């Protein structure tokens, strides 16, 4: 397999930047609001596994757009999972009233 030309590397980098940046507003809103009631931990767990596999694939190919985008996406996805887990634990452990 030959290496893509500079134009396709640029397209890959732009695509990687946009899809990775799409996670930022959700992570930011969740962190600021502290409300993660609507977050599906199963979906984020499956997404994290898929992203980790894409990261391994990018490492195997030596493709920097894949490596960078998936490394950042994995961190953001894991942040959502940790926040959701902590939120659910806090809800479970909260006093229920008098």
TrEMBL record:
Transmembrane segments: 6-24, 36-57, 63-85
Gene3D superfamilies reported in the protein's UniProt record: 1.20.1280.290
Membrane topology: Multi-pass membrane protein
Membrane among keywords: yes
Pfam families assigned to the protein according to its UniProt record, in alphabetical order: PQ-loop
GO molecular function: sugar transmembrane transporter activity
Localization per Swiss-Prot or TrEMBL: Membrane
InterPro entries per record: PQ-loop_rpt (IPR006603), SemiSWEET (IPR047662)
Keyword terms: Membrane, Transmembrane, Transmembrane helix
Example of a GO cellular component annotation carried by this entry: membrane
Origin superkingdom: Bacteria
Presence of keyword Membrane: yes
Protein's name in the database: SemiSWEET transporter
